[in-house]
Amino acid sequence: MNKVTDDFPQVVRDIFQGITPIRFDANMGEPWDLQEVMSEHECPWLYSIHWEDILDMNKLEEPAQGWDGMAAEYVIKVDWIDRMNGWDALLRQWTE
Questions:
Q1: Closest by alpha carbon to 64, among 55, 73, 54, 56?
Q2: DSSP H helical ranges for the chain
Q3: Which of 33, 51, 58, 82 has its CA 20 to 30 A from that of 15?
Q4: Are 20 and 14 spatial neighbours (Cβ–Cβ below 8 Å)?
Q5: Which residues contact 47 (CB under 8 A, 6 or more apart)?
């Protein structure tokens, strides 16, 4: 058992819910050019794979609570407006 890895999912939940505050102080440098990064990592072979031959969705057993019920167990509702207000406040600290 590893305390760090055992608690990781809960820590991430707490961060997203605003229970555990975090701060990151580092020089992030220049923003990346997303188009350039994506072009450097193109994988044409990925589109040639016939995924239906690898994963047959018809062979998956539906969970007792249904797919939506199963997904709901792992969804955390976050008020993104409140989170963005916090982001704006953080940016003001850097620019003042």
A1: 73
A2: 3-16, 34-40, 44-48, 51-54, 66-72, 80-95
A3: 33
A4: yes
A5: none
